[in-house]
Amino acid sequence: MATTGTDLSRMREMNQLSIVWALRGNPPSTVTELAGRAGLSRPAVDVLVQALVAEGWAEVQEPGAGSVVGRPARRYRFRADAGHVLGIDVGVHKVLAVLSDLEGNLVRTLRRPVDPEAPPAERLAEVDGVIDDVLRATGMTPDDVWAVTVGVTGPVDAAGRTSLSTPLPGWTEADPVAHLAARFSCPVRVENDCKLSAVAERWKGVAQDADDIVFLLAGLRTGAGLILDGTLRRGHGGAAGEIGALKAVRWLTAPDHLQTCPGIPDTAAPGEAAAWVFQAARDGDREAKGAVRRYTRDLAVGVAALVLTLDPQVVVYGGGFSRSADVVLEPLRRELTKHCLRLPELRASTLGDESVALGAVRLALDEVDDRLLGDRLSAPSAPRR
Amino acid sequence: MATTGTDLSRMREMNQLSIVWALRGNPPSTVTELAGRAGLSRPAVDVLVQALVAEGWAEVQEPGAGSVVGRPARRYRFRADAGHVLGIDVGVHKVLAVLSDLEGNLVRTLRRPVDPEAPPAERLAEVDGVIDDVLRATGMTPDDVWAVTVGVTGPVDAAGRTSLSTPLPGWTEADPVAHLAARFSCPVRVENDCKLSAVAERWKGVAQDADDIVFLLAGLRTGAGLILDGTLRRGHGGAAGEIGALKAVRWLTAPDHLQTCPGIPDTAAPGEAAAWVFQAARDGDREAKGAVRRYTRDLAVGVAALVLTLDPQVVVYGGGFSRSADVVLEPLRRELTKHCLRLPELRASTLGDESVALGAVRLALDEVDDRLLGDRLSAPSAPRR
DNA sequence: TGGATAATGCTGAGGAGTTTACTAACTCGG
DNA sequence: CCGAGTTAGTAAACTCCTCAGCATTATCCA
Fold first, then answer.
1. What CA–CA distances, in Å, run from A356 to A201, A318, A361?
2. Considering only Cβ atoms within 10 Å of each terminal Cβ, which end of chain B, N or C, has fewer?
3. Cβ <8 Å between A236 and B155
4. Residue B1 CA to nucleotide D9 C1', Å?
5. Yes or no, beta carbons of B37 and A2 under 8 Å apart
6. A11/B15 touch (CB, cutoff 8 Å), yes or no
7. What is the pTM of this model?
8. Could you give the CA distance from residue A261 to residue A288 in angstroms, rounded to a whole number?
């Protein structure tokens, strides 16, 4: 791979970029601090940061009444509010939208319930609705949004289609990218929900320290998302992590053990049966503990296949069942010991049901970073597709 | 991640590096050609390339009797022979060493048979022997070797130890890195044989076009090596690809179908039984075809788990059985269709039994590139550990 | 032998960062 | 209330690197 040659203007671009990276994620900084972080001299940083202010990437904060010795320094701040990104979770029962600024600060989170049987058109209308609400509540227009990422269930191809399979009714025919492209001129991407949750766990969740992560989505459906060497792995056709499709792996039927456990009260809704069983197991109920053990045993085969294939540092147990991780993780660990060569750490997710939207935000931010702060600095405005 | 600031000398380094990349892998080039490739002006390239000659990275080739109009240009060449790397395959039955120059041209290949029961000390002595032979035959000293990579069977940890398991007798106690460090001051690395074969297939084999590859080592033992997004995946503890350890995956016993097929002549050695069965199947023998089908069925479960987990572009069928790929690939494809969502391409390896050593050479070359041509140019001499 | 052609070599211009020195602004203590 | 001490901002001189253009050199062909 031929590195391309460099002249003076290129050097300036690179240095300006390094100032941007030194600004971002830090509290408002003085020129001296930036010089230290970027490895440049004060005068150089001075002209660069002033250029950033002129372009709109940075902002001056005049010194207040400081109580430090010496002349108080002007501080510069990255304009995280110069643009925003949207992360959207299109679930079976709900649509969830999260608006974030360029530093990943969550500005607004809104959800709407959706009829599980709703056809794609209706579901997309709810998406439009929740986006409208978020934009109205924050006083923004679609042009203020620099990237949108949508999470859906099922393997997602490069075009954002879910043509192989998905539990969202009729969704194999839906084209969410085209739908959103009508309103947004910025990059729009669709990604699998397990993959997004995995990204979220590494960003703000329980796996921030790990570079090789298997995320388990455990609920009435079971799925997985993979992060290797710190980046999300999609696979060549976007179907990485779909080991649940293998019949020898009993992920499809594993949750049934929890639904059919004797003793579940008739009053429990279908979604609550599992929670009841977990609670009963926690209380020492023999039948419930057996059901959990059978569930874990089925789950463990697939997890073992993932672990043996990838040898991750951490396996994150997430999804709807993660609230009951306390009764699942220990039996799961025991099962895995039987199958695996090297046991990874098992951790329970704490992000709750916003993890998909959160991961979507992170991916949208990555998109913006690549486009605008990749290796040359663009003007601070929404990137085009 | 803070990109570090750049001053003029850094720029010069970068441009010099881009000249190196423009020189490598190309025939001897004129300054004008280099300027075009590197995106620099002729005068700039001129001084840079002269500096490279002074340092020993490049070499002038005075113009011969050319038949072109105009003043014939001086040509510059990358000194691929400034250093060499060693790739070594420590197998059960043999030790194989390949010496390569810095451009990946294979200079010398030597092999020695080893008693399958040989203890580690004896096996390492054979390694020493074959290295001595290669160095003597090429008139080199250990200081001319800039990196060594060794391939062994079994999962290899970061220290080059094979403590979990390996079919090499006693090898869990061996420390090949320490052994070779006594002779070589350059970086020494040990890696799993399947992983190295995967690297070789992408470098010079049948998967040069693919970025997501599953390599299958198919023989009396079955294993896998993974390349995702163009780079080898080791996993957090170096045990990626070891799905064969899962009992639900019948890789351990799959080859037995080929050993126990009725009709195998008593005269056949244990290693030749499988080859006989494949040939018989090719000739239309019912029993043999059944044995191959059973073998394929067992193999396919593990392959399907890999494919569903990783969604690769290509699955390469390699190892000792790859010569019989013609009778295996089609049944394997049929089996995979049953299990998988999206079928990857199936290709048969053509590299033969030198693929492990070849992959080792590639990894050693990568090591040299990282150390010497990473982002600043070092002097052309063996890197220290 | 002279002209055409293409590469080399040289010189001056321009841009970017660094160093150094100087000025400005603020705190603290007498 | 003022001056010493400290730190930030600014300007000038300098270095280094690339680039553009022109003169020079080497070769082939008529």
1. 10, 11, 9
2. N
3. no
4. 29
5. yes
6. no
7. 0.92
8. 7
Model confidence at A261: pLDDT above 50: yes
Q: What is the phi/psi pair of residue B30, to 5°?
A: -85, 165
Which nucleotide has the shortest C1'-to-CA distance from A76?
Answer: D8
Percent of chain A with pLDDT over 90: 75
SS3 string, chain B, reads: CCCCCCCHHHHHHHHHHHHHHHHCCCCCECHHHHHHHHCCCHHHHHHHHHHHHHHCCEEEECCCCCCCCCCCCCEEEECHHHCEEEEEEECCCEEEEEEEECCCCEEEEEEEECCCCCCHHHHHHHHHHHHHHHHHHHCCCHHHEEEEEEEECCCCCCCCCCCCCCCCCCHHHCCHHHHHHCCCCCCEEEEEHHHHHHHHHHHCCCCCCCCCEEEEEECCCEEEEEEECCEECCCCCCCCCCHHHCCCCCCCCCCHHHHCCCCCCCCCCCCCHHHHHHHHHHCCCHHHHHHHHHHHHHHHHHHHHHHHHHCCCEEEEECHHHHHHHHHHHHHHHHHHHHCCCCCEEEECCCHHHHHHHHHHHHHHHHHHHHHHCCCCCCCCCCCC
Coil, strand or helix at A324: helix
* Structure tokens given for A130: 């929740």
Pairing of strands B231-232, B222-228: antiparallel
- How close, in Å, is residue B26 to chain A by CA atoms? 12
Residue-wise pLDDT for B35-67, tens only, equals 888 888 888 888 889 889 988 999 988 776 666
Task: Tally Cβ neighbours within 10 Å of residue A55.
Answer: 15
Count of beta carbons in the 10 Å neighbourhood of residue A46? 17
CA distances from A244 to A159, A214, A299, A325, B243 (A): 23, 14, 10, 20, 16
Closest CA to B134 of B121, B145, B123, B124: B145
When CB atoms are compared, the residue of B15, B228, B239 closest to A342 is B239
Question: Has residue A67 got a pLDDT over 70?
Answer: no
Assess whether pLDDT exceeds 60 at residue A2: no
Q: Look up residue B23 and give its two tokens.
A: 């020189």
Which neighbouring-strand residues pair with A109? Answer: A98
Residues paired with residue B88 on neighbouring β-strands, in sequence order: B97, B150
> What is the percent of chain A where pLDDT is above 70?
97
Protein residue with the closest CA to the C1' atom of nucleotide D4:
A70
Write out the DSSP string of A78-147. E-GGG-EEEEEEE-SSEEEEEEEETT--EEEEEEEE--TT--HHHHHHHHHHHHHHHHHHHT--GGGEEE
Q: Which residues of A touch B18 (CB under 8 A)?
A: 2-6
DSSP-derived 3-state class of residue A189? strand
pLDDT at A58 over 70: yes
Residues paired with residue A99 on neighbouring β-strands, in sequence order: A86, A108
Angle at CA of residue A44, ends A43 and A49, nearest 5°: 100
Least confident of A110-119, A194-203, B225-234, B272-281: B272-281
Q: Determine if strand D comes within 7 Å of the CB of B44.
A: yes
Contact call for A235 and B304, based on CB within 8 A: no
Which residues of chain B make contact with A342, given a CB cutoff of 8 A? 155, 164, 237, 239
Determine how many CB atoms are found less than 10 A away from the CB of residue B237.
19
CB pair distance less than 8 Å for B11 and A15? no
Residue B13, min C-alpha distance to chain A (Å)? 10
Spatial distance between the Cα atoms of A147 and B320, rounded to a whole number of angstroms: 50
Strand partners, A87: A98, A149
